[in-house]
Amino acid sequence: MKYYLIIGLFFISVSGLQAQTKKEVKKSGITSVKITSSKEVNGSMTEQNESFTRYDKDGNEVEEINYSETGEFKLRIKRVFNKYNDQVEESHYDKDDKLIMQVKTKYNVNNHKQEEAVYDGNGKLLEKTLFTYNANDEKSAEVTMDGNGMLKRKEIFIYDKKGMRIQKTSYDGSGKLLGIKKYEYEY
Q1: What is the mean pLDDT of the chain?
Q2: What are phi and psi of 76, to 5 degrees?
Q3: Cα 34 to chain center, whole Å?
């Protein structure tokens, strides 16, 4: 009984680390978090890996390893950040450490996301999203194209005088309206 209580408290404390903010990770000097779980199987406890996350000195998640339900290695994700702590690259690797997908992000002079491109493991462009901003530095549009430059999706954002988003309108690649999301605020 005492053994199970200690394990339970350990899981509660470790699983809480995953939920820490970047600021808290940096302040606490956390360099990595490993999450494991234990189950009773045929009368004995077995432990297996769930995930592992490594952080840089600024609290950015630079590596993430995910495991299957059986504890087998499933996927490794490596991230690269610029001097402003913006993620500029994310690479996904399979269990054989083969690159399967890569996302590269560019930022504008105001440090807002300007372009996000998704590539397959061979470097072929799969999808590219472009972001535009209005005079108040608010995201006004998000346009996604396939690897051949054909429009897949477009989203338009509208803001009130306080800079709060009040509407998001989505269209498919042919211009057909997919939906409108409205935001109402009480002050």
Answers
A1: 89
A2: -120, 135
A3: 18
What is the C-alpha separation between 172 and 170, in angstroms, rounded?
7
CATH number of the domain residue 185 falls in? 2.40.128.720
In terms of residue numbers, what domain contains 169? 98-187
The number of distinct structural domains making up the chain is 2
**CA angle at 127 for the pair 125 and 131, rounded to the nearest 5°:** 125
Is the confidence at residue 17, as pLDDT, over 60?
no
DSSP label at 14? H
What's the predicted TM-score (pTM) here? Answer: 0.78
Tokens at 34, concatenated:
């490993």
- DSSP helix/strand/coil, 82: coil
On whether the CB atoms of residues 38 and 47 are closer than 8 A, the answer is yes
Q: Is the pLDDT of residue 23 over 70?
A: yes
Element (DSSP H or E) covering residue 7: helix 2-18
* Residue 55 burial by Cβ neighbours in a 10 Å radius (0-12, 13-18, 19+): buried
Tell me how far apart the alpha carbons of residues 70 and 120 are, in angstroms, rounded to a whole number: 27
Q: What is the CA radius of gyration of the chain?
A: 21
